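Hey,
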Amino acid sequence: MEWLKTYRDGEVAGKLAELLKNQEGLPPVRFMEVCGTHTVSVCRHGIRELMPPAITLTSGPGCPVCVTATADIDAFILAAELDGSIITTFGDLLRVPGSKSSLQDARAEGADIRTVYSSLDALQIARQNPERQVIFLGVGFETTTPTVAAAILSAEQEGLQNFSVIASHKVMPPALEALLADPAIQIDGLICPGHVSIMIGADAYEPFVNRYKIPCVIAGFEPVDILKAVVMLAEQVKKGKPEVEIAYDRAVTREGNRRAMAVMYKIFEPVEALWRGLTTIAGSGLEIRPEYDSFNARKRFGITVDEANDPAGCACGDVLKSIKIPADCKLFGTACLPEHPIGPCMVSGEGACGAYYKYRQRPVQ
């Protein structure tokens, strides 16, 4: 099918949608779009409405801000309260509620909190303010963590004494392992994240195919990319031969970006981490290695917090596990709104609740 080579063409998308409607012999299946950016694209382009009755698309834990635990948000707010500190962060984190307040509240009360596009921007702020401590709030998956590692390496090489990171980074495979091992979560195929897969490579998903016999297809972010991935998953289900396929071969390889991964693991080591909704998962977090402790803001400034409960009534945890869709939450669209979010899934640009609300998604009847 030569026409599948293009990925920005409405006619091609129509052909793929027609292929899906004409699937014969396909049992009822649930395919998870793991990545938050996929969820936004699915909602924005009405892709759920194109699915045949046998296929349900459900969201997963691929929004880095959404899976950041409340206790981590509390640690970020403590850092903002340090005398003379400059906090640098991605914009999505500002409005995520901690147990008592948010970074946005802290900034309103006078904390110096600045939005940046990358850790390298934070590094530049440290160069420009040598008399003040600049702390970068590190969240994200394998996509962005190598750049944080590179920033720490640069700071070490330059001898910067006023730059550090609170690391709340996570890696995706252990979280998927936890999901697939949970009997309460029924998933029949994974639309694997595009950006993460550029880094970790398609081979990282082979253990899931071997252990759980589940089809995996890595997708890009255009509607054609996602529809193509769904068609490929459906074909795997019908054939009964699960494998890892790449529907995003213009960017993803089998081995991934080994150089970036080497830089990441030079600075960070795997540790257990608490994911919102998924509890603590071994090896799913990344902490700064002891030899780089001078750049570890938690240790440098003694930032410790107690475990904290998620907001009462918030269903973000179940949404991230695909047990619920946003509309199942009693707070969705009533008490929890983009201008007054109760949970992080309504805050983030990659959050399922925010995407469902913005594009007014409703359950397909």
